[in-house]
Specification:
Layout lengths: L11 H11 L8 H28 L7 H10 L3 H26 L7 H13 L3
């Protein structure tokens, strides 16, 4: 667990890049506003993660899956995020599947469960 509350914040450079990409070029955001956005985003991530953890625990899993996040967003009434994130998750899985097929040489078809395991392995660095 984090030793300090600040350890839970998202990296400042990441937040700054997201802000820069979201706004027109001529708009600048003050340091206090960036800090506030960083804190708000961190709290949102923790909030959704907490609910997703509850969803995984309902089925006796310790590993969070993409579907747990989508279900958590629905439970927390962030329905407007579910569809775009579902599309992004599907695209991510397809890209992972293509990469895996290219790496293995080919004709192994990945199931959704195997794909989630492959994503988990990459995120944790395990093989």
């Amino acid at each position: 667990m984090a030793e300090k509350l600040e350890d839970l914040n998202l990296p400042n450079m990441t937040v700054q890049k997201i802000i820069k990409d979201a706004l027109p070029e001529h708009v600048s955001v003050g340091k206090d506003a960036r800090s506030a956005l960083s804190r708000a985003a961190s709290i949102f991530v923790l909030y959704v993660t907490s609910q997703a953890t509850k969803e995984a625990q309902k089925v006796n899993r310790k590993t969070l899956l993409g579907q747990d996040i989508l279900t958590a967003l629905e439970e927390l009434e962030f329905d407007e995020f579910v569809e775009p994130l579902s599309v992004m998750l599907r695209d991510f899985k397809e890209a992972k599947q293509k990469k895996s097929k290219a790496k293995k040489g080919g004709d192994v078809e990945m199931t959704e469960e195997n794909d989630d395991e492959a994503v988990e392995e990459e995120e944790t660095g395990e093989s």
